[in-house]
């Protein structure tokens, strides 16, 4: 008589393997066995029917405190942020801040719950989620996201970022609020130094964030150079600070859109610095007309991931927490359309994204934590073409209750 397992997935197609289908057994939250045929029984049996089974999806960048807030404001911020040269990006942030005058953890929690349930339905099981911390938002977003993190623990892993969206030096009192947010249980220190009025203030912003990161032994996430200004250099500031603090591999750079305007000699030096500091880059090319030089970064050996960024807020009117949809859009916007390139994009929402967020043991291998998606399609190209929700999702070795997630994700009447 064969062994007993919690879950057995039968007839799975694995990435990079042409030697037939595989069975995958899950026990005690981990992948127990991968073989052509497993002589054992699962308490739950899933027939993959030749569909692709891979690691689950990872979203390295989501403004979770702002999801579904677009209806709360006019579209001026959206227009400013999406202007062709992104020269009004700072104005967009200032206009978008109006929604925070009514921030309350109660409604933020409801919106965030819907978004995270959508993530679970789409097999997106790890999210780095930003919560604004400033004189208007105070700690309401952090409270809400910590509550949602705990509610979905074991289903979707949420890393809460205490994020100084409106600056630190230009927003007196933000440093103290950031520290309070970390004391409350936020996981990551978040900054946006390019929004400060001077380079000196930007450098001080970076320094304060790393001071907090060291105090709380936390990773750092920063939105950097997010405007059409080739003179912006805060990505370089952050990478240098990471090296100086011994924080290599613990700082993540988001957006970095000004990079597309950098001259090649400077870009080459910057790429070398990023590799030395082990700073990955998150790009969200669908949410703005400029974006980081993704292909060039990959060619230089810099780790890159893709993020959802926004869901129906002042900066982007769409989004479903569906990382296959993000890949589909990126394939067009980055002109990465060959099978090899699409496969690389798939890495950027799975294994490479997990590395960027320091998620341990994230792989489809025996002994690894069981975070898996069972897709209807037989290969990555077809999966991206359809960008449909998975047929089944396994999180922490447990089958996700899709009916319950559908209920939680439903739009209020």
Tell me about this structure.
The chain is of the alpha/beta class and about 425 residues long. The chain has two domains: about 5-50 and about 365-400, Urease, subunit C, domain 1, CATH 2.30.40.10; about 55-355, TIM Barrel, CATH 3.20.20.140. Helix content is about 35%, strand content about 20%. The protein is built from 14 helices and 16 strands. The protein has helices spanning about 75-80, 90-95, 105-120, 140-150, 175-185, 200-215, 235-245, 265-275, 295-300, 325-335, 340-345, 350-355, 380-385, 400-410, and strands at about 5-10, 20-25, 30-35, 40-45, 55, 55-60, 125-130, 155-165, 190, 220-225, 250-255, 280-285, 305, 370-375, 390-395, 400. The strands form three sheets. Strands 6-7-8-9-10-11-12-13 form an eight-stranded parallel sheet. Strands 3-2-1-4 form a four-stranded mixed sheet, with no helix packed on it. Helix 7 (about 235-245) packs parallel to helix 8 (about 265-275) and helix 10 (about 325-335) crosses helix 11 (about 340-345). The radius of gyration is 21 Å and the shape is globular. The model has no long low-confidence stretch (mean pLDDT about 95).
């Amino acid at each position: 008589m064969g062994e007993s397992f919690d879950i057995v997935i039968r007839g799975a197609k694995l990435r990079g393997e042409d030697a037939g289908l595989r069975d995958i057994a899950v026990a005690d939250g981990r992948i127990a066995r991968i073989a052509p045929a497993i002589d054992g029984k699962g308490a739950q049996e899933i027939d993959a029917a030749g569909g692709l089974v891979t690691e689950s999806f990872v979203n390295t960048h989501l403004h979770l405190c702002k999801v579904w807030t677009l209806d709360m404001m006019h579209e001026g911020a959206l227009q400013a942020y999406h202007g062709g040269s992104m020269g009004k990006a700072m104005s967009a942030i200032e206009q978008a801040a109006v929604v925070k005058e009514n921030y309350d953890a109660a409604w933020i929690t409801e919106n965030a719950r819907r978004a995270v349930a959508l993530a679970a339905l789409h097999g997106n099981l790890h999210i780095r989620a930003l919560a604004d911390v400033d004189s208007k938002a105070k700690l309401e977003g952090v409270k809400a996201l910590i509550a949602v993190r705990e509610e979905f623990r074991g289903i979707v892993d949420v890393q809460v970022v205490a994020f100084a969206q409106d600056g630190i030096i230009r927003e007196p009192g933000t440093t103290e609020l950031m520290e309070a947010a970390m004391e409350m249980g936020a996981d990551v220190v978040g900054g946006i130094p390019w929004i400060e009025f001077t380079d000196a203030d930007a450098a001080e912003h970076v320094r304060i964030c790393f001071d907090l990161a060291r105090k709380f032994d936390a990773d750092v996430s920063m939105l950097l150079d997010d405007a059409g200004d080739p003179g912006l250099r805060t990505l370089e500031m952050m990478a240098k600070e990471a090296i100086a603090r011994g924080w290599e591999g613990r700082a993540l750079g988001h957006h970095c859109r000004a990079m597309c305007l950098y001259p090649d000699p400077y870009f080459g030096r910057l790429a070398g610095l990023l590799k030395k500091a082990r700073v990955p880059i998150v790009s969200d090319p669908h949410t703005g007309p400029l974006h980081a030089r993704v292909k060039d970064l990959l060619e230089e050996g810099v780790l890159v991931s893709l993020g959802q960024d926004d869901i129906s807020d002042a900066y982007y009117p769409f989004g479903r927490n569906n990382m296959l949809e993000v890949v589909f859009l990126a394939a067009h916007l980055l002109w990465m359309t060959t099978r090899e390139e699409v496969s690389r994009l798939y890495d950027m929402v799975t294994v490479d994204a997990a590395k960027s967020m320091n998620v341990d043991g994230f792989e489809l291998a025996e002994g690894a934590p069981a975070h898996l998606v069972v897709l209807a399609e037989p290969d990555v190209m077809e999966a991206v073409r359809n960008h449909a929700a998975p047929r089944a999702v396994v999180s922490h070795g447990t089958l996700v209750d899709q009916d319950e997630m559908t209920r939680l994700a439903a739009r209020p009447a």
